[in-house]
Design goal:
heterodimer; A: mainly beta; 4-stranded mixed sheet; 3-stranded mixed sheet; 9 strands; B: 5-stranded mixed sheet; globular; disordered C terminus
């Protein structure tokens, strides 16, 4: 990831009330990694729960075609090339429910391809 | 300072037909308005003159099964309806998802041919199209270009500049750097007074990002359009009516000719509204919009019934009433 790209993500997450892993003190424990797979036309798992303030790293992999991984309030928009894992580090500052959608058209069921991130 | 407000004289009035929307360009020939039209003609290269056009959207030719078992019937009826209008429109614009994709070899091309066959029955001088994601997102627009031509282009008609803008063929909801550069260059030829109609598939603003009702670089498109005083944006994708004002631009979404989506603010999931065989076209409805110039647009929703939809008498009556708005 380029410095510019990482900076943009840091800025975006701060703007959303979230903090990226890279800005946290080094003495904190390593973030929990949550593996997510994308394949037509669903994410697995469909729902992820985390506690407010918890740092996590979403490790997302497409198993078939190119998908998108998008959330406007969480400020990320990733392309998922088949077989290549994309890491999305986030720390939720406050409780809420966020919808994440595939925004790279992948076929007839594309419109319903989404998952939920629940911050408790 | 001009003695009159330019925007009050170049009115675009929309009358929804349930199957599309009829837009009328009102350009007065006499008096102060006529003088202004003459000035616009000198600046823009062509004096605006009155004409009407129709918007169709989201025909999804090839879509099969619930929530719409009727296939192309609504589309075919809409064609008949436009052909029966007492005042023939100059132009029909299709704002994407002309066809439903298929990954079965040859089937998507067949669906594009069927779309052409039905749309070719329109008795209007001009038919213009832009793709939706179901037409052009899986193959980057290759098949669409073979069948219909370029995905972004512009043309002038009777003093109005029309811009067809592709925000689907990159696979994601984006116009892209190349499209933005093309648009900037295209618009640069026109004075700020030029009447501009942009037709595209997805909304250019954040209508409902969680339902993919947005264009990620739509803000850059709107920035390019912001200096222009007469901008109308027509789009589809959301399968329901919506009106949005932003700066000098007004954005109209057209209903689909296949099925409807619910109101995203109603809290329900993003699923097509169920088909009701007793009221197969209920969700098509009728919308009328009249811009008075002095007041916000008047919007009237009329529920569509089979009787109203089944013949031209009802539509002619609606148009007659529309003239009195």
């Amino acid at each position: 990831m380029s410095i510019l790209r990482r900076s943009l993500i840091v800025f975006s997450l701060l703007a959303a009330g979230l903090a990226p892993v890279a800005t946290r003190a080094q003495d904190k424990a390593s973030p929990r990694t949550i593996a997510i797979t994308a394949k037509r036309f669903q994410f697995e798992p469909k729902e992820v729960h985390l506690k407010a303030g918890e740092r996590v790293k979403l490790a997302v992999t497409s198993e078939d075609v190119t998908h998108g991984f998008f959330s406007r309030p969480l400020h990320f928009d990733e392309d998922l090339t088949p077989g290549k894992t994309v890491e999305v580090p986030i720390e939720a500052a406050s409780a809420g429910t966020y919808t994440i959608i595939c925004d790279h058209f992948c076929g007839s069921g594309h419109g319903g391809m989404m998952m939920t991130l629940v911050v408790e | 300072m001009d003695p009159v407000d330019r925007r009050k004289f170049l009115k675009i009035t929309g009358v929804s037909l349930g199957a599309g929307a009829l837009f009328k360009i009102a350009a007065p020939a006499l008096g102060e308005g006529g003088r202004l039209m003459g000035l616009l003609g000198k600046k823009n290269g062509e004096r605006p003159t009155p004409f009407s056009f129709v918007q169709f959207s989201d025909t999804h030719v090839g879509f099969n099964g619930p929530p719409d078992p009727l296939g192309t019937k609504a589309f075919e009826r809409a064609v008949d309806m436009v052909n029966a209008l007492p005042e023939r429109p100059d132009l029909v614009l299709f704002t994407g998802d002309l066809t439903h994709e298929s990954e079965k070899p040859g089937e998507h091309a067949d669906r594009m041919r069927l779309f052409k066959k039905i749309s070719s029955r329109l008795k209007v001088p001009l038919v213009k199209l832009v793709p939706g994601e179901h037409d052009a997102a899986l193959d980057g627009g290759t098949l669409y270009r073979d069948a219909f031509g370029e995905t972004s282009y512009a043309f002038d008609h009777r003093g109005v500049h029309f811009v067809g803008l592709d925000n689907v063929s990159h696979g994601k909801p984006v116009v892209g750097a190349e499209g933005l550069a093309w648009l900037e260059k295209d618009l640069a030829r026109f004075p700020k007074t030029a009447p501009i109609v942009v037709f595209t598939h997805r909304p250019l603003f954040d209508l409902k990002p969680d339902w993919e009702w947005f264009t990620s670089d739509g803000d850059r498109v709107l920035n390019l359009l912001a200096p222009y005083e007469n901008v109308t944006v027509l789009y589809g994708h959301i399968h329901r009516e919506h009106v949005h004002h932003e700066g000098h631009s007004t954005h109209y979404a057209a209903r689909s000719l296949i099925f409807a989506f619910p109101d995203p603010e109603s809290g329900v999931p993003k699923k097509p509204l169920p088909f009701d065989e007793k009221k197969p076209f209920e969700n098509l409805g009728i919308r009328r919009i009249a811009e008075s110039g002095d007041a916000p647009p008047r919007i009237e929703e009329v529920s569509l019934t089979l009787r109203e939809y089944s013949g031209t008498v009802g539509i002619q009556q609606i148009l007659k009433e529309g003239e009195n708005l």
